[in-house]
Each structure stands twice: as C-alpha cells, then as structure tokens.
Amino acid sequence: MKGFQVKWLLIFSILLVFSGVGGITASAAVDQRVYDNADLLSESEIAELEAVAAEHSRKHGTDFLFWTTADEQSLYIQDDMGDFYDTWAEENGQENAVLLSMNIATRDVYLAGFGTAERSLDNQRVNLVLDRIIPEMQRGDYADAFHETVTTSSRYMEFRPGVNPENIFFKTWFQLAIALLLGAGVVGFMLYNSGGRVTTTSTTYFDDDHTKVTSKLDQFRNKTISRRKVPKKSSGGGGFGGGGSTGGGRSFSGGGRKF
Amino acid sequence: MVIQYKCPNCGADMSFDSESGHLSCPSCGRQDEIETFPETNILRKFDPGEAKEYHCENCGAVILTEAETTATHCSFCGAPVLIADRLSGDLAPAKVIPFTISKEEAVAAFQKWTKNGRLTPRGFTSGDRIKKMAGMYVPFWLYDIDGTADVAALATRVRSYTRGDTIYTETDFYDVRRKMDLSYLKVPADASEKMDDELMDKLEPYNYEELKDFRMPYLAGYLAEKYDYDDEALFSRIESKIVPYIDSYISSTVSGYSTVSYTNKQIQTNKKNVYYTLFPVWMVYYDFENKEHTFAMNGQTGKVVGKPPISPFKVAAWFTGIAASTFAVMKVISFAVGGVLW
Question: Is the Cβ pair A225, B187 closer than 8 Å?
C-alpha cells in the first residue's frame, strides 16, 4: 500500500513536466490574416476569426491565413493560392503559414502548409482537416468551417511530424477505456483465483503408454478458389493536390477538394 | 472394533508421524515401523453395541462418533482411536497417501498463504486466528479409465497468394477421421458428502509416487471418514471431468489445418480399475470477524484452497492502482510517439 503514494507523486510530476513542453511561443506580428475577397463572412465573424487565428498563430509561430475569392476564370486554385501567398509572404516577411484558400465560384477549397507547417501540417493531416470541414462548407457554414480549420490544424500541429493525429491510441477516452478494462481484468482474475486455482491439466492423469491413435484418415475432398482484386489505395474522392511549389519557389504541403 | 497402538516401551497411545512415516509415541518418543509393529501391542476390542458408541480403551470414556467416522480422537483423554469395522470388508481402503505435512508445517504453510492474500483484509493476512485444525483422511475413488473415441471432422486448409492484381484464396477441404484408444490413470473424485466437490477438485493434484497400500496405522492420530458415495455413483462425475481432457487430446491429433469442425464424435469410456483411497487433507477452521471460514490444505503438497474474505478497499485500491498506472503509461507512450499528452 505504501508504494501507491510514491507512484502517484511520480505520475503527477511526469504529467507536470510534459505539459510544460507544449507551450512554444513565437510572436508572429501580423495584423491581418483573413482576406475575405468573396465577402462570405460578416464583420463580426471576421473579427472573431482574426482573434482565434491570432491566438493559434502565436502558439505555433505559424500564421493561419484565410483567402476567399470568386473568380470564375480560375483553372487551378493551387496556382492562384501560390500567387496570393508569394505576395503576402514578401509583404509581411513571414515564411511559416497555414493557408486556407477557397474559390466560391468554382467551389474549390485548398489547404496548404508553408515553411515549418509543411512538415507539421503534412498532406495526410491536411486531408484529415478537409474531411472535417467539407460538410460545413457544403452547408454554407463558412465561419464555422474556418474556425474549425484553425483549431483542428493547430491541434494536429502539436503532434510530432509523421504520426497520424487521429490514431485511436492518442484518444484519451480510448486510453482510459484500456486502463479500466485492464484494471477490471486483472482484479477479476485475482478475485477468481483467490480461493485457489485448478492446477490439473489434461496431461495430469494422461496415460502415455495406452493412449494412441489407432486409425487415421485425411482424405482430400474438394477445393474452392475465390478471387478478388487487390484493393487500390484510394486518394480521397474528388481530391486534388498534395503539395507543390508556388510561382515564387515556395514549396508547400497541401490538399484540395470540391465542395 | 476399536484399535489402539500401545507403545511397547511405556504403554502410551502411538500415532502416525508424517515426517518419518512411522508410528511414534508422544510420551517416550519411540518410533516403530508400521509394517513390523508387534501384533501384541495392537489393542483391539470389538464392541457389539451402537454403531455410534465406543469405549475408549485408554480412559474408559464413551466415544461418540458420526457413522462415517473411521478414525478419531477420544474426546476425554485425546488418544487416537480407529474404528476398524468401518474400514474392513467392502469399506476397506485399498490405497492411502500418508500425511507428509505435520500440524506445525500446516500452520506455517497456512499463515504463509494468508500473508500472500492480496485482496484479503489486513486482519486476515496475519493468519493468527486459527480456531481448529484437523488432519483428515478424505475418501476418494481413483478410477483407471480406458475407452475409445471415434471422431469425424471436416477440415480446411486455406492459403492465399497474389498474381498480378488479383488475390486468390484457395480453400482445400478434407475429410478427417480418427480412431483412438484412450487411457487415463487414477482420476480422483472425492466420495465424502461433507466435502465440497469444487474445493476437493482444487486440492489436486496429489503426487501418486507416495501412494501406499493401505495399512491401518497410517490413520492413527488423524480423523478419517468413510465414503458416502460408491464408485458407481461417482462415475458420471469422473466422466464430466475427463471429457475436456479427451477433447484436448482429440484436437491434438488433428493438426495442420486452418479450421476443423467436428461432424461426429463418439466417445466411450469404461472404468477399468477403481481404488478406494484416502487422501490427506488439513481442514483449517479460521475465525474472522465473527465468521468461521473453512479452508482445506493438501496434506501432501501444502496447497491451500477455500474462499477467503475479500476486502473491498483492497479490491478498489488494486483496481485504481492498475488502471491509473496503465493510463499513465499509455499517456507517456503517446507523448513519446506523438508528442502530445492530451
């Protein structure tokens, strides 16, 4: 029983140490992050989005940018997005950014990560963010979709590059469930065995000399063969992109969808 | 018939000593081989009266016993007494495993066992409230079983391989048939009504190398019971006991397949030999919080069985401890792998 207190203290101090590590702060001194050229958001929605974006930009040292347009002539949203970003980066002297671009005329949306975000928000994570915001975009709920883009991307960027942030082993509820199940299982096993265990097995009274197979038959009967195609790795319905470079030579991770 | 073994030296009542395997005298310490004990010192007295009443040859008191009891102590002078007519004739045991654990060793082993109780209340783990210990020979039937099994099964062997962009899954079906001779030796079942079957099953296994031909003196100093159920009555219990053993042997003979489903299983078992045997059991009566708990200890191996009291606090503590440390470990791993705690 004495060990418990020590154990708790240890766990608590580990938690304390680790929770301190997450808070890397770097100031990204930019005053505008929402460029709503297509007029999809109201004044108050823009103000709220700016506040959220500013908060998470400070946290990661990466700017969360939004750029909307209504250009019917646009062929590839990546190219337009690249041009916008090259201009923005030179004007503000910033190279780290997460940029959500959307063309309301062609109903394209593209999420890209530049600079450090190219690794911390890689193609896989971009697609995970898009999975979550596309339903809201389809409903026309742009303010919420943008808000979620910031919070979800920011959350994913806390994870070490390369791991899947949606992996079930990172979910607290799953970890808790495993812990409770294991606790219940072990204690249940101890309770079950508290009155003594059956230790006889099928070999305890087995008579080796006189137990034997006297006749044995393994007759082949028939054979069935089933065929199926090797499943192809699907690359997300209607998705496009997967990163590239802007006209100004800035490489990025990214992914886009129709909505 | 009442039998007492009188010490050739001093005339005191001798009893079986589990350590030496001899008859030993508590007064002068004399030890005698069971096989060579002088016939003249065995005191037998036939009592024509009530089956439940015997006169102690030592002090003259009337011993009252239950009808099943074959060995007991005189309740007045404490002399070990065997009631022989209950062990003779049809009832005579064929084999016996003598006690190898003395009373002191049994107490020590029991206390060690209570100390290891992880879920038992603190007061229980001290093991110092043994109310009564009784060394008892419990009647068992040992069955030599032979039989045959004839099983038929449909088995499959599955393999899959890829050619080009197609995955082929090939399933071969086989008719499998096995006939076998079965033999199991000395499968025990306790024949006493008083003893809990589950408890007695958990006491197994006994080491049969020390199985001896029955001799009366082994019982001196211990309680002994006569069987309540005969070998016919218990055979169904034996069958249900060995069916899982037979099943596991059958499946061990059908190997190398992906799936096996039995279409026909015919198992016949017969008893070849039956031995009426006495197994040594220490019964421990333990007082805890005004309740008597009964435990049984294998008098040969020291294994203890019986339901101990459970402390809800300790159960909760273990559960919390295991769950919390698992949770912490998973958090540490997820931090190490993903860099995120929450």
Answer: no
Q: Give the residue from chain A lying closest to B294, CA to CA.
A: A195
The string over B137-175, giving b where at least 16 C-beta atoms fall within 10 Å of a residue's C-beta and e elsewhere, is bbbbbbbbbbbebebebebbeeeeeeeeeeeeeebbebe
Of B155, B307, B324, the CB nearest to A195: B307
Which range is least confidently modeled, A46-60, B49-63, B109-123, B268-282?
Answer: B49-63
For B143, the closest chain A residue by CA position comes to A205
pLDDT band at A12 (very low <50, low <70, confident <90, very high): low
pLDDT digits (tens, 9 = 90+) for A86-134: 999 888 888 899 999 999 888 889 999 998 898 899 888 999 999 999 9
Question: At residue A16, does pLDDT exceed 90?
Answer: no
Residue among B168, B308, B327 minimizing CB distance to A194: B308
For chain A, how big is the Rg over CA atoms in Å?
A: 28
How far from B244 is each of A34, A47, B176, B261, CA to CA, in Å?
A: 72, 73, 20, 16
Tell me which of A190, A205, A211 to substitute to probe the interface with B (most B C-beta atoms closer than 10 Å).
Answer: A205
Report pLDDT digits (tens) over B215-230: 888 888 888 877 888 8
B148 in Cβ contact with B272 (< 8 Å)? no
Asked if A200 and B177 come within 8 Å (Cβ–Cβ), the reply is no
Please indicate, yes or no, whether the overall pTM of this predicted structure exceeds 0.90: no
